[in-house]
Amino acid sequence: MIETHAHDNEDCVDRVVGEAVSLCAEKGVRLTEQRKSVLKVLASSHVPASAYDILNQLNRERKEQGESMLAPVSVYRALDFLIQHGIIHRIESRNAYIACSESHTPHGEATIFLLCEKCGRADEFQSESLGGMIEAIASAASFKPNEPVMEIRGLCADCRKIEDESRKSVEN
Predict the structure, then answer these.
(1) Does pTM surpass 0.85?
(2) How far apart are CA 37 and CA 43, in angstroms?
(3) Model confidence pLDDT, tens digit, residues 80-118
(4) Model confidence over 38-72: pLDDT tens digits?
(5) Which of 28, 43, 86, 138 could crosslink 13 through cysteines, CB 3.0-4.6 Å?
(6) pLDDT at 172
(7) How far apart are CA 105 and CA 83, in angstroms?
(8) Which residues, including other chains, have CB under 8 Å from residue 139's CB and lie 6 or more apart?
(9) Residue 88 and residue 109 in contact, taking contact as beta carbons nearer than 8 Å
């Protein structure tokens, strides 16, 4: 589901795409127009989107411009590239993707996603202390974690506020 509520994400898109361009130049890899288009769709929303949500959005835009439709494999290839280079994340529990809102994660930090069960919003945070705890637990088990990610479901501040206001109006 692509986010539709009123929020101007133009700054988010510009920042995320700018960081991706810099990162790809640093690594000597190409951020093609198609990859950039997929990234722009993800960066324009704080709600994780499925590959088919992204495909539908891009094909609507392409249709308006008289261009040919993309095949799902094109989107999946772009997603694979963007994940491989740390530009986006996959939200496993939702089988969806979101643009990385934090600068490239330093070694030893864990990524935490706060996922709103009502509106679908996902907020990303980095935690060095949680990363250290995960490293200690993994080390004790002779385990090497690749990418420590935690997903926490609940209600965002906006949805909690709406819920509280609704509850108060029912009580009165």
Answers:
(1) no
(2) 10
(3) 999 999 999 999 999 999 998 776 555 568 899 999 999
(4) 999 999 998 999 999 999 999 999 999 999 999 99
(5) 43
(6) 67
(7) 13
(8) none
(9) no
